[in-house]
Amino acid sequence: MLNAHTFKTARENAMSKLNKITALAPLAVMALGLTFTGCMEQTSSPSSAAAGQPATISMRVGLDPVQSLGKASLITLKALILQLSSNTGDTIRDTLTTSTTPGILGLSTAPQTVSKNYTLKPLRSWKVIAKTWDLNDSVIHIDTVNTGVVNDGDTAHINVSLSSRFTMYQAQFMIPDSISSSVSGTVKQVVNINRLELMIDGVDKKDSTVSPGPYYTKLVNAVIGYDYVPVGNHTVQLFAYGVMYAWPTASPLYSSSITNINNVLADSNATQGVTLNWTGPTTNTGAMKATIGQVGTVTLNGTLTNVGVVP
Predict the structure, then answer these.
(1) With bands split at pLDDT 50, 70 and 90, how would you rate the model's confidence at 218?
(2) What is the dotted CATH code of the domain comprising 55-164?
(3) C or N terminus of the chain, fewer CB within 10 Å?
(4) d(C-alpha 113, C-alpha 61), whole Å
(5) Is the pTM of this model over 0.90?
(6) What residues contact 131, with CB distance under 8 A and at least 6 apart?
(7) What is the pLDDT of residues 160-182, one digit of tens each?
(8) Domains in the chain: boundaries
């Protein structure tokens, strides 16, 4: 039988154990709750999708030549500008120059091809703009190509063929030393040419006064030229000026009739003859021959006749 003291001690021990259990219960419940919460977040999270493979555009750009026949001054290319834009607003710009790898050649009178690959975002369609600039910041070539949708991991091969927007005209004159009579070819008169003119579509494009003077060297080709003639059909006139008695220096001694020239085919150097008639004093029976390069460059090989000029 327990006495009063022993009963009190047992009761206090029991109450102490109950208080400890009561105190630990919230912690146990909280830990259990955290365990359940963590499992729910992990279970409800969607599984990660496999990473997509980027698409590739393999670019091949062909540049048609800007042709010239023996010109001392040529159109020189400075850069090829490439811009790739997707239908969702993605844009890639690239500049290829004569010093990059890959790069372009500055020489515009020979065809060339440039190839480069670009990594792009897939599942988009792309628009490619390619253009070249020359040293004068003029656009020489330009073209646009559109792709279909480039799929995940695909490689789209794009060929861009750029035709020159311009051609270079060149006029070449054989400077005569004299003219003679159609009646008596033994009598000759000296001709002094000091100015040559090239007119395209009614506009003076090249007007050249000999330097050093006072006159062009006789029986030698004199050459004048003009760049940046748009590809297409054009009318051309040639004039040769000089000094002869009281003949006005602003009036040509020789002039050509209007000649239609078609330089659409930028890869051809066909030539075309042009006749420059004597328009100086006395009569118009004289003639001068010129050759015009049809495409790329217009070359005029002129020969001033010295027989049959003066009756």
Answers:
(1) confident
(2) 2.60.40
(3) N
(4) 6
(5) no
(6) 80, 81, 139, 141, 142, 143, 162
(7) 888 888 888 888 888 888 887 76
(8) 55-164, 167-304
